[in-house]
Amino acid sequence: MEWKQWSKHANAAAASSTASAMRQRRKSQSLIRGRDLLLVGLIATCVLHLYVVTQTHPATLPPEDIVEIELYRGATPPAGYVGYYCQSDGVKCHTETHKCWDSAICAETGVRRPPPQKKKKVIAYAISVTGDSPGWNGIDGAAVLGHSAVRAHRNSSYDAALVAFVSPSVSEAGRHKLEKVGFRVLEKNLPVEVEDIQGKLLREKISSNGCCGAWELLKLYAWTLTEYHRVVHLDVDSLVLQNFDELFDDDPTVGGAILSPTAIDTAKKNFEKRDTTLPLLEGIYAQYTMDWNMAQRPWGSNPPVQGGFVIARPSLQVYEEMVSIVRKGDFQGGWGGTRAGAFYGGMTIQGLLPYYFMHYRPGSGREVRGCVYNNMASNPRNVGGFGKGECRDGTVPPPDGAYTGLVEKGDCEDCRLSRVEDVKVVHFTICQKPWECHGTSTSCYYCKICNQFHRKWFEIREELERERGAYQSELYAHGKTPARRNMCRSYNRAGYIPIDVSKL
């Protein structure tokens, strides 16, 4: 009985083993068939790929391990890419050898791709900041000025950038604010330390000269920014109303001032007396307006440059030569024995620039129309009112004495009579700073145009705030100064409502 039970179990085990062996055999056969199918598939793929390659490319194509890529005509391959790309329609090139051949891939597209956009040259708008304080509203001036410059370039042939030269004394908070409103901040020391100036008079007096002393010389760094096509250095109390592309040509022919006979004669004499031993300097490296309010007799012969507007054509040679002049410090009644600089601010930019560009390097700078490019609402004559006194630029009015204020009619141009539509840059000097919230009186000779300029400044400030999401509607909703966009609580300095820079 036991044997029968054992035999039964043994037969069952044998049957189970046989069944297992049969399952294993079928599994192995299935795997073999799967491998065969995979192998067949791979072979078919390779054959197909080989067929495509041989049909598309000549036999001389490079090895298969070099990957190909298609890009737009003139486009640059990705960084580190070594392969082939469509440099122009129907052509492929190797990025290392630049050898090209006809490409069926490019040719088959049948699409003529547009040529790449030519990169615009960049005009930098620069300011200099020598110090700041908790209540300093110059940051508002910088913000609105920067926005106005970028805004003017929306229909320009050039791109715009913003740069701020700051002295070491400018706080980190002040620098952050400048960056916040769009400026590239560059810390700069004086181009020449005061103690290194060799001339005794200049060394002792320059720190207290003009509005800002030696720190006005920060503006010289405009000529060092060689990465830009031109650098327009403006004071923070300026406003750009239109682009002035016409001044950015390598050889500008429009926009220049109509010079008086005195100015023309002076320029001729200066050119004849130039130092011919200096290395050649060709072209125009500075464009500026004159500050005729500071001019001295004889009218038109040695005018100051107005330091709030200068277009620099960057050049390290020009920069180094001006720095060398300052270091030498030859200032006795003016720079280099001339009368250039014998006026307010003459020891710094206002006198240094006319000396360099009219005496040291005559012909390398030119005057542009102040009423267009740096309108300060100034009187061109030496007596107040309209049509009185002598023209400070040396212009002699018509014999009949008729006063027009129009340069095209032979009179000296009166910026107080300018049409705002014709003005491209405003400089708030005589008109005073917008953030001082002056009233809207029309009783003075310059009041009418100043009121229009102030309206423009607040209009552009509002545009800036709205575009940047910083408009403070709750503060402006119930104001009583509509001429200032209700951004003044009252018409006085204390009434000004600053821009919330943190929201820009």
Number of strands: 12
- Intertermini distance: 101 Å
Choose one word for the global shape: globular
The CATH class of the domain at 122-368 is: Alpha Beta
SSE ordering: HEEEHEHEHEHEEHEEHHEHEHH
Structural class determined from secondary elements: alpha/beta
The CATH architecture of the domain at 122-368 can be given as Alpha-Beta Complex
Q: Compute the gyration radius: what is it?
A: 37 Å
Let me know the average pLDDT: 83
Biggest β-sheet: strands ordered side by side in the sheet: 6-5-4-7-10-9-11
SS element count, helices: 11
CATH topology-level name of the domain at 122-368? Spore Coat Polysaccharide Biosynthesis Protein SpsA, Chain A
Helix content: 25-40%
Tell me about the largest β-sheet: 7 strands, mixed
Poorly predicted tracts of residues:
1-19, 50-67, 83-91, 94-102, 104-114
- Beta-strand content bin: 5-15%
Q: In a nutshell, what does this entry contain?
A:
The protein has 504 residues and is α/β, with parallel strands linked by helices. Helix content is 31%, strand content 11%.
Question: If you had to describe this structure to a student in words, what would you say it looks like?
Answer:
The protein has a seven-stranded mixed beta sheet, sandwiched between helices. The longest helix has 55 residues, at 2-56. The radius of gyration is 37 Å and the shape is globular. Helix 3 crosses helix 10 (447-467). Among the domains are: 122-368, Spore Coat Polysaccharide Biosynthesis Protein SpsA, Chain A; 431-503, no CATH class. The chain has eleven helices and twelve strands. It is an alpha/beta fold and 504 residues long.
